[in-house]
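Lab notebook, bench 4. The sequencing result for the construct came back, and we need a structural model before the next group meeting so we can plan mutations. Quick request posted to the team channel:

Model the 3D structure of this chain.
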Amino acid sequence: MTCYVYIIECCNGMLYTGVADDPIKRWVQHASGKGAKFIRANGFLKPVFLESFKDKSAAMRKEREIKCLSRDEKLKMIFEGRNLLDLFGLRQP
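Done. Here's the predicted structure in token form:
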């Protein structure tokens, strides 16, 4: 089953990393205030990164890896790496 790692930019500029099998559904939950406490506290602005994996364990490994990165390293990955939002034309400047 395909699983995704995503990064959301919060209203205060902070970055939240998560895993979901249906990222659009999960983003709607976050945006409506029914997602993670971090997003509720910092506000949902927009998704900025999406990457697919063949299974949940691979996605969770990538999530842990991303959470260990510095903010600058995360931004570099978002703008220079493989980002499915670019493929689908969903990333906003």
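Residues 3-87 form a domain with the GIY-YIG endonuclease fold (CATH 3.40.1440.10).
Will bring this to the meeting.
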